[in-house]
Amino acid sequence: MVSKLFHEGGPHSIRKIGRDEYAMSVSLPTDDDGRRAHECPDESCSPGYFKVMPGTGITGGQESIFCPYCRKEESPDKFFTKEQIRFAKDIAMREAHDGIERMLKETLGLGTSGRKKIGGGLFSVEMSLKPSQKPMVRRPFEEEVRRDVICPHCGLDQSVYGLATWCSDCGKDIFLTHVEAELSVVKSMLADIKRRREALGNRVAAKDLENCLEDTVSIFEAVLKALVRRFMSNKGSSREDIDKFFKKIGNAFQNIKKSEDVFHASLNVVLFDTLQKNDIDVFERIFEKRHPITHNLGVIDKKYIEKARTAEREGKEVLVSAQEVEQSVTFSLQTFQSLHKRMF
Question: Residue 226 belongs to what domain range?
């Protein structure tokens, strides 16, 4: 009797489920931090790739999971990455390679040596089987995703690109949790400036403060874009219309006054309902310091003087204080929390 293509059992729990069908279990490897990759089954979802820490979040009886970017809900087996599927196929091919070799040996009557001699005397034929090299099994390629957040609702430890909106396990809105995590990084950098000044000098500390301000402005812009994109999508705007809108406003969300105007004119939403007029003016002046930092090596120019309405002298270096960055972080978070509550 010829052997089966696969030996049942073994490390992959192989079992025959039909005439020519087998099932096997493949354990998917995790990355160096113990996280396992997932990919949204919706091909149009971007970026679609995320990771979770096994053993956190909903750990039993979970019938579906969610994409943290588009909230598509499917069974867990729909979220395998293309690399994980390739990895499983590699293992199946390696197991099949051994089975095909066994079947050929038995069909041809070859012994354990893989050789058989037919006939004798003057005429004889010798058959031999030289197995090909086993197919290589390569680990799944894992992308670097370095924004980690723990869901405050179910406890899932997950990693995403950018500012994702939904928890992969419970499907609840955790956008503000992502935002707070990003701003907390700025706060941590601020808290370390005194030590870096003592260890590396005033110039390094000044650059650290400038970087903190630039990061805060970048977070402000990214969060407003994410909120507006979701708001417009909920209102029925197409992806093309949303892309056109952002192309039209350009980098307006890097500027406090322009951001306020866009929200009022295009969305009919008050941007700073929790801030007093004086707070908004302070917020604007702090953000304007980003211009000479980003575009002029921190040196004050006429454009900055006009926009910031400041009496600072052209040619001097713009000064950023830790208190100013802390204020901008506080104002940003207050604005995000209020907007999120009112818009969604």
Answer: 174-343
Q: For the chain, how many structural domains are there in total?
A: 1
State both tokens at 178. 């992502």
pTM, rounded to two decimals? 0.80
Choose between 219 and 128: higher pLDDT.
219
Residue 40 domain-assigned (yes or no): no
- Tens of pLDDT, residues 143-152: 887 799 999 9
Checking 177-182 for CB contacts under 8 A at 24+ apart, the result is 177/149, 177/150, 177/151, 177/152, 178/147, 178/149, 179/219, 179/223, 179/333, 179/336, 180/333, 181/147, 181/148, 181/149, 182/147, 182/219
Q: Match 């293309």 to its residue by tokens.
A: 82
Kindly report whether the peptide bond that precedes residue 47 is cis, defined as omega within 30 degrees of 0.
yes
How many CB atoms are closer than 10 A to CB 311? 6
CA dihedral 213, 219, 222, 224 (to 10 degrees): -100
Query: Does any domain span residue 325?
Result: yes
